[in-house]
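Hi team,

As requested, here is the filled-out complex form for the manganese (II) ion run. I kept the field names the same as last time so the parser does not choke. Let me know if anything looks off before we queue the next batch.

— J.
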Amino acid sequence: MNLAFPPHPAATLPVAGSDLRFPVRRVFCVGRNYADHAREMGAMDQADGREPPFFFTKPGDAVVGGEGELRVTYPPLTRNLHHEVEMIVALGAGGANVTVDAANGLIFGYAVGLDLTRRDIQAKAKEKGHPWDMGKGFDQSAVAGAISPVSASGHPASGRIWLAVNGEVRQDGDLSAMMWKVADIIANLSTMVRLEAGDLIYTGTPAGVGPIVPGDLLEGGVDGVGTLCARIV
Ligand code: MN
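And here is what came back:
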């Protein structure tokens, strides 16, 4: 096969405790998976009763990540870039119509992530009934720390998930507050698309989202999974 030009290389993330790197395929994100965040966004239907999960995506090459202090470029066309700290599920195997009982078997590991959001563009899209892509799926919008393999992290169902900006804690929640648990998310998502090894799933953010500006230092973590550090430049 003669390609017209070399294909763009896949984004990769380091695997903690090894020299392996995880090649990213697709990025899926769950919306409003913590009631306190749904409430702060004014989405009372999600906050007060468990609606079916809904998903949006980011391009695989929107992933920027690794260990140490990451540098993330402040994106264009926004005056209201928001942080959303999330636990990322990294798949090491694929499947369609995966059962809840089989879902954990697809998981390679977990990581701490930031679903960066141009909130002003997203808000305008919501108002007009337009897609969220340009509010959510811009370059470097999917920040991720190193992937902690299941052999190290197990399958965390509870534990602190937090984010500090310039040393001040802004988000401080617990994984147990997720309305849709990881296995439920995988089972539901796999009815809509076939999942494959390399897929990342951002599992939603707890309350406390807010704006960040160039120069800010974001530090976050998920108990039992790891930490994340990013400088907005
Ligand atoms: Mn999110």
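Two things worth flagging: The first helix runs from residue 35 to 40. The mean pLDDT is 96.

Thanks,
J.
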